[in-house]
Amino acid sequence: xxxxxxxxxxxxxxxxxxxxxxxxxxxxxxxxxxxxxxxxxxxxxxxxxxxxxxxxxxxxxxxxxxxxxxxxxxxxxxxxxxxxxxxxxxxxxxxxxxxxxxxxxxxxxxxxxxxxxxxxxxxxxxxxxxxxxxxxxxxxxxxxxxxxxxxxxxxxxxxxxxxxxxxxxxxxxxxxxxxx
Length: 180
Prior knowledge:
The protein is an alpha+beta fold. It is 43% helix and 16% strand. It is built from eight helices and five strands. Helix 3 packs across helix 4. The longest helix is centred in the first third of the chain and has 16 residues. The chain is globular. The N and C termini lie far apart (40 Å). The model has no long low-confidence stretch (mean pLDDT 94).
């Protein structure tokens, strides 16, 4: 299993683990379980993610906001989805980055304390009817033109930066700037 796990802000003692799944057959069931609180995770359209670091930055913002008791949304996992978006509209962010029935390639992000990853990941593996795919293959499922459109990244910017850095800059600065 080739997942991506990263330590988040040291003050939170939390980690983020990301799994990539291809050809998922039960996205409706997964979305329903997440919305009902039966699954504790964020489920994200793989097409909108250029690099797992993008999710790590959004997860980090979410855990810090939770620690400071400043969540904009109702939960840590919706906060992660909200933080992925450059929009300050919660509903739009959740619709844009969350999954729909037609989505077959998805990422599942878990936020956990050290040692909780295995149990949480097993629950996900038992639920998702799809191919566990190495996170190193994420670029095969990313839609770079769609990512550029959603994050409003033009060709001139990519002459001096790369796609991941441009996306992460926008996620990091969302609270401070208003993009055109």
